[in-house]
Amino acid sequence: MSIFTPTNQIRLTNVAVVRMKKGGKRFEIACYKNKVMSWRSAAEKDLDEVLQTHSVFVNVSKGQMAKKEDLLKAFGSDDQTEICKQILAKGELQVSEKERQSQLETMFRDIASIVAEKCVNPDTKRPYTVSLIERAMKDIHYSVKPSKSTKQQVSAENIPV
């Protein structure tokens, strides 16, 4: 009895899927999780370090490649590398629940520290502590908006009085 292992099968580990809908079709690319953010912030320049494979998929997890006709129709080109760059720049990155929670907690703390820097107790003329601001934000059920920067959320018109 012999065990058959497919030779053309590529195992994708540590995968971040970046999705983009264009022309009514969904296109996906397989990337390395931590490298997508550094690519978008222009810290990472090498595309090979970001992408796991220079292929455009319809479904990464099932390994279904995008058809050439679909790529031509949606992107006006069948150059996989250029399409990967477009998807990387404009596509949406799938993040896990823990990552999202961690990001929200960090933003919450950043907002609290910015508010603490700007506020002074009028009675004692001493600055409020970050923990006091955090507690007050939790008491009023302040919700962090992940789509806005921390500085935008702290601006005067966004703070409820």
From TrEMBL:
KW Nucleus (keyword) present: yes
InterPro entries noted in UniProt: Ribosome_mat_SBDS_CS, Ribosome_mat_SBDS_N_sf, Sdo1/SBDS, Sdo1/SBDS-like, SDO1/SBDS_central, Sdo1/SBDS_central_sf, SDO1/SBDS_N
Keywords of this entry = Cytoplasm, Nucleus, Ribosome biogenesis
List residues of the Ribosome maturation protein SDO1/SBDS central domain.
109-155
Q: Enumerate the spans annotated as Ribosome maturation protein SDO1/SBDS N-terminal domain.
A: 14-101
Q: Record keywords: Nucleus included?
A: yes
Pfam families linked to this entry: SBDS_domain_II, SBDS_N
Q: Which Gene3D superfamilies match?
A: Ribosome maturation protein SBDS, N-terminal domain (3.30.1250.10), SBDS protein C-terminal domain, subdomain 1 (1.10.10.900)
Location of this chain's protein in the cell: Cytoplasm; Nucleus
Judging by the UniProt lineage, the source's domain of life is Eukaryota
Which PANTHER family does the entry mention? Answer: RIBOSOME MATURATION PROTEIN SBDS (PTHR10927:SF1)
Q: How does it assemble?
A: Associates with the 60S ribosomal subunit.
Identify its protein family: Belongs to the SDO1/SBDS family.
Q: What does this protein do?
A: Required for the assembly of mature ribosomes and ribosome biogenesis. Together with EFL1, triggers the GTP-dependent release of EIF6 from 60S pre-ribosomes in the cytoplasm, thereby activating ribosomes for translation competence by allowing 80S ribosome assembly and facilitating EIF6 recycling to the nucleus, where it is required for 60S rRNA processing and nuclear export. Required for normal levels of protein synthesis. May play a role in cellular stress resistance. May play a role in cellular response to DNA damage. May play a role in cell proliferation.
The protein in question is named: Ribosome maturation protein SBDS
Organism expressing this protein natively: Ataeniobius toweri
